[in-house]
DNA sequence: CGATTGCTTGATACCTCTCAACCCAGGTGG
DNA sequence: CCACCTGGGTTGAGAGGTATCAAGCAATCG
């Protein structure tokens, strides 16, 4: 058998969720007692900063509730949202001594902090945890690469369609995208402006592909049509 | 002491090179005897395919000589080059059972293949190798995220400047970018068209920022000016 | 209520793409 | 040696997609 880091081709955000990081703490055989929360669950209000690019990356987090965005800023204010993170996702697990991006709360949310220096020792002795962290890193990488194709080679309508498809896949029926983030967040995730996102959503609705049930609730009336745009 | 995966903020392509993968095979203490080349060095001619997206990812490679590109294709032919890989870089180390992208030779090149299934066992027993692979994954991730900012939020001139800066940093004097790839490769890496790349290079030359010594040799006359575009 | 925030819509500008012609170097064959 | 061809690159003109600037709408909140 070859290395099986994780279930494999998963939707963008399902990737990290496929790595139930909390599991290590529940599995006595994993001997993970040494990696424990560095403190109690922390709460953040919407738009509150969790950590900032350049801060000392002494801890990383696991999202418990709510949605977190990780992003990079240019010094003229332009922003690129790298990813949205939901319950179970890891945030801030970094290669260097400093965070490489900023993390902010999209909605009110809670996170568990972990000490990073605990990981060093565990890489030696905790096989299960090592595999999980490895899987986390590799899947984040796959997701980032898929995002590059999106950003580099897709039109606005393709970007928005891909985004809606990605979020609708998380709903029970796979057709209702319930968005936690603003249009500005979406725009910065897709490399567009807020106006273009808005216009594209309107156009998709006029075309009968989606229905704007509420500002942040979008029903996919024709998932196949949207998916075709994700060629 | 916290986890120190690798030297830290390095230029895009230096990241993977900072992980001298071959070292594991040279260090007896690392007990890496189980991860060995799955065969002799393989040679590829320019533009030859090394592996294709969707192929069974039984082996991964380390670049010995030459330059390799990894890319994704859309079914209408649009291409996104994810990264260029030079000597020492790993290519094709994947989370799933299949390659997530295609690898092709930019120039004539040689690569050493490794069996991926050997890694599984090593994650348990070989600490040094585990750290190296970890560092590889994390740095690839950082690089991919930086690339997202480039693709999503930068103009053509900023993209080209960043690209030139990145390659010039590898030269002895840090001012001469010797490119192995065609304008088309550059365009697909930056999410532009070949014409826009060409026009932008011409404009930078007219502005006195660079000098087109030869088609694939570009001298940075004003690295600072270029770097300022990389805000 | 008025103010604020998030969103939508419109008019216009601009950047990049598309399509096309041309250039140039290198190779091939007469 | 030269004519020709080919692949990679450059340049130009025009089209088109997205950004910018601006106005207005709806929901929320004090």
List the helices and strands and how they pair.
Two copies of one chain form a homodimer.
Chain A: H1 14-17, H2 23-26, E1 42-44, E2 49-51, E3 59-65, E4 68-73, E5 79-85, E6 90-91, E7 102-105, E8 109-115, H3 117-125, H4 127-153, H5 156-168, E9 176-178, H6 183-190, H7 194-206, E10 210-214, E11 217-220, H8 223-229
The structure holds a DNA duplex (30 and 30 nucleotides).
For the record, give the distance between the C-alpha atoms at the N and C termini of chain A, rounded to a whole number. Answer: 32 Å
User: What's the number of helices of chain A?
Assistant: 8
Secondary-structure element pattern of chain A, one letter each? HHEEEEEEEEHHHEHHEEH
Strand content of chain A: 15-25%
Largest sheet of chain A: 4 strands, antiparallel
**Strand element count of chain A:** 11
Radius of gyration of chain A, in Å, reads 18 Å
Largest interface: A-B, 58 and 59 residues
Please give a quick description of this structure.
With 231 residues, chain A is of the alpha+beta class. The first copy, chain A, contains eight helices and eleven strands.
């Amino acid at each position: 058998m070859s290395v099986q880091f994780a279930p494999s081709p998963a939707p963008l955000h399902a990737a990290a969720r496929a790595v139930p990081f909390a599991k290590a703490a529940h599995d006595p055989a994993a001997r993970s007692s040494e990696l424990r929360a560095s403190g109690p669950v922390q709460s953040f209000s919407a738009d509150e900063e969790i950590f900032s690019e350049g801060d000392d990356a002494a801890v990383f987090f696991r999202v418990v509730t709510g949605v977190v965005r990780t992003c990079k800023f240019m010094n003229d204010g332009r922003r690129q949202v790298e990813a949205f993170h939901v319950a179970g996702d890891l945030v801030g697990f970094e290669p260097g001594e400093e965070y490489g991006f900023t993390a902010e709360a999209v909605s009110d949310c809670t996170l568990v902090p972990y000490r990073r220096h605990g990981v060093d020792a565990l890489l030696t002795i905790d096989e299960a945890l090592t595999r999980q962290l490895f899987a986390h890193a590799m899947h984040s990488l796959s997701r980032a690469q898929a995002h590059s194709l999106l950003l580099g080679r897709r039109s606005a309508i393709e970007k928005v369609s891909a985004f809606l498809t990605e979020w609708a896949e998380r709903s029970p029926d796979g057709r209702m995208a319930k968005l936690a983030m603003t249009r500005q967040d979406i725009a910065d995730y897709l490399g567009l402006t807020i106006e273009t996102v808005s216009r594209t959503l309107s156009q998709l609705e006029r075309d009968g592909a989606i229905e704007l049930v509420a500002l942040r609730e979008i029903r996919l009336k024709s998932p196949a049509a949207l998916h075709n745009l994700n060629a």
